[in-house]
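hi!! sorry for the late reply, been swamped w classes. u asked for the two structures so here they r. pasted raw, havent cleaned anything up. first the sequence of the first protein and right below it the tokens
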Amino acid sequence: MSAAFENANSQLGFDPDTLRDRYRTERDKRLRGDGPDQYLEMSGKFAHYNEDDPYVDPGFSREPLTDEKDVVIIGGGFSGLLAAARLHEAGVKDVRILEAGGDFGGTWYWNRYPGAQCDIESYCYLPLLEELGYIPKEKYSYVTEIFEHSRRIGREYGLYDITCFQTRVKSVDWDETTKRWIISTNQNDAIKARFVVMALGTATRPKLPGLPGIEEFEGHSFHTSRWDYNYTGGDTRGELTKLADKRVAIIGTGATAIQCVPYVGRHAKQTYVFQRTPSSVDLRGNKPTDYEWAKTLKPGWQRARRENFAAIVTGQPFEEDLVSDGWTDIFRNLAVIVPREGAAAITPEEMGRQAEIADFRKMNQIRARVDEVVKDHRTAEALKPWYRQFCKRPTFNDEYLPTFNLPNVELVDVSEAKGVERITKKGVVANGKEYEVDCIIYSTGFEITADFKRRLGIEINGEGGKSLFDHFKDGFKTLHGFSTRGFPNWFYIGISQNALSVNMTAMFDDQARHIAYIIKQTQERQAQAVQPTQEAQDEWVNLIQSVQINNRAFLDACTPGYYNNEGNAGTGLAGGTFTPGINAFNALLAEWREKGDMKGMELMP
């Protein structure tokens, strides 16, 4: 390390080694032997948390379908909508969408808890803004606007006419004779499809903590993805007036709780927030859209804005920060530490240390904000996050921390016990104390990194009847993350061996474009089917594994969470990805398409 950098360390005002030790201690006390198995599969008494739809009339049924389509898209959230839109633009029109919910929206159809809001700037997050000529109302849209935008896409692209709602896919089976997929559903369908696009996103199945006694609770309970407004009163904007005489427990303090806790705390007689690991909570700074600014936007503005954001949050050089928010703040700080003209003279090791210093500074700011806002010292100490900024998804909210100054809101820190101990008939036991409550709200997120089969909840059988999950038992084997040998004409939009981005919709969009290209080319070249060659697939898997070294070390040092699969970093959300970043990955795909030779894909007659 350079003498100049050593000298800079002495001016920091904090000791990096002390912080590293504190981070390690906080991580170790939260590590559990059961890792991701600490969460329940949604079955039995809790099956309704995943399967019930509070927004439609129960008992829906229709006549089974046995027809054939060129493409069937499974999922009607943003990834499915984007797949349909990009297929439409590519000239692929014989498409059907199968969606479990009663309308489009995916996560934003189910997640209608009070205060639900995107944490990525709306102008980057909401897809197809230019195509539809729509500008969001605020810098960070709330769920009502996001859900309505999903429906807008459905209307403008004519997708309502090709979608079967309230339809859960049970199995997808390859028929060797007809070279078609047979799709079975809860509506007794047996739909034939030449191509299948799995577009289930990352937040599909709610998860529950596997707490002893969880089935014994005699009060009311629900998951935040199935918010019960009949019990709480109000709507996504708040006014939960029916909680006025209720004692409420909220278990979980991730991105969802950050948004809904202020509304519950404002209205409930008593609110207990059970926290194992605090979130990093920065200022939101939401504001209405300046429509005079919107008039100045040039064609291509949304893609340029997305790429600018992605460049900054992956540490690439940038001339201007177009988004300028909490996500980009840490990297603006890094740019100050490492001036662009001097970056070439710095070794990767020193760059990594300087990035860590910038991270320490940012997290010190986050912790200092807790002290500034929260009046009770003990509560403030428990709310401070002791880990690197991107060990968990950062959150942004202006009301969460002040909520703990209310006399009816109590934070229950369960970090030493590695979580809540158990549930009883009357309430929640934590740190040896029983908290009697009328209602338990599980704000425990989705099964983002659970076992792949459990997460999808669909049987998928390819050539020779081989299960996809047996095929992947030793790890993903794909080309570019979208397709795998032995499963012809099958594509997956998601986070398997491709580039991960905090702006999921931008990531899904480019994946949808690429898949639409492959399907269209397969049709035009009059092939029956397409799948990766073994050689290309092996090369891609080797490449993905080769770029994981630095990322794995970072994740191993993180506190447990879904990014590192509760401490099992190799299988976490950020494990097994194309670490050069989303812009580099999209450029790689664009170059592949421009060559036009379908290299690495086997076209089957």
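now the second protein. again sequence first, tokens right under
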Amino acid sequence: MRPALFILLVFYVSGIYAQNLVSNANFEEYESCPIAISDFTTINWISPFWPGTPDYYNVCNDSELDIPVNQAGNQASSTGDAYVGIYTYGTREFIQGVLTTPTIAGATYELTIIYSPADNFGHSDGLGMLLSAGPPPSYMGQMPQMQKNVIVESQSAWHTLTVEYLSTGGETHVTVGNFNNDANSDFIPDGMYRDNAYYYIDSIAVKCIGTPSTDIAVDLGEDIVLCNSDYPITLGTNLSNVYNEWSTGETGNSIEIDNPGTYYVKSFIDCRYGTDTIIIRTIEEPELSLDETVCAEAIHKVQLNTELGDYTWSNGIVGSELIATESDLYSVTLTYACGVVEDSFNLIIGDGLDGLEDLDLNDNTVFCEGALLPIDLSNLLLDSILWNDGSVSAERLLGEPGSYSIKMTNACVDTIISFELMEEFCPQETVYIPNVFSPNNDGVNDYFSIGYAEDWPPPSIKFSIYDRWGELVFYSEDPNFQWFGDFKGQSLGPDVFVFYYELEVELNGKMELLNDSGDITILR
């Protein structure tokens, strides 16, 4: 005998759903494995018509009653491991079972037979289902509530015969077979046993569709709005001791759902039912859809949907509106019913090249001989940098004269700047003037003089020194002068003096007049 749970599962897969009043509807349960033709051992079913002897096929038999190949043909079960076979022409056979509960007057039932013609036989119409209050007094000539009136010849597939029936009530037995005699049956001879028709029967159902009743007050609760994180959730009815049919095909007191949608249940008591529907909606995560980069001339305004939730911007602004006037990366956090969403955009006011003019990269850019010219583009709002020598660095130290160009790109601009870098001799690095000396005849720093870079041409110079009252105390045009801190033959005391000089030299191919001033301190 097969477990009852297995029977139910197989039964549901077949498409014949619950509330079926037929016990062992798929013939899976049996008292013993059939070992011979007409060994009808399936539970809850009998052969009510003599001399008819239905056959029981099961995979437990490995010979003529096996599945799929057996004495009647070759057919796998559509629902499990078993089915039965009956003659419907030439010879008559019926199968009969007892319903789990009597039918209810005025209630609608769905009657279903799943069948297939056997390979080795002819084909007939007239396969039917009879519901009766107790076993019928006769079988031939009865008017079944459901009957197949056309011949189906296809033997490769299972066929389903279904009708709805309004019951007169009190029916306790179900009988399946051809209730018409041969004279009233259509027949096509075929197969090895061409004078007879034979059908495999795989499932039988008498399902109470039911009658709506306002007395059965089913309540699934109010419609629900959920976050994605709330799933799965369980839906249940407010009624107990009822049979339920859910829109999902499940039949328990509750169901677990993973997705939004419209769900309903039919709750049966006897053959009456009440229904209820619930709508489950999901709050979808909002999409802010900010542009990745925004180019603006002077100001950019962002207005987001105020109904989505509360906004906080990276610059401290609270609310759905942002007015931005500076180039920057702006981000926003939206707090809504189910959590937070973040988005950002890069705002470029103008072209993103503010500060480029400070670098003073003209057509002719000059730097001191032997020095390095620093170039720093890192403060510019650029996506890419490409120098004409292949470098992509934003920071460089240039030390070689020559022609340079930089291709600078962002979402708002694609431009090239070019400049000529020229090297020149810088006098600030060639004149050395001390600011203190001690003319005390100790042999150390006893006089004041100036020095020059070794590679600088000998200059002509006018060098003047003044005391604090503006009187000239020393003057010389000798570039190699020495002053011992005296004036008019007298040594000057410790004090601070001011110097001024003019120096005419040839620099970078032309004569230049250089001048400078400062202070000198005499220590005694």
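hope this helps!! also noticed smth abt the second:
The chain has five domains: 4-208, 215-282, 293-346, 357-424, 427-522.
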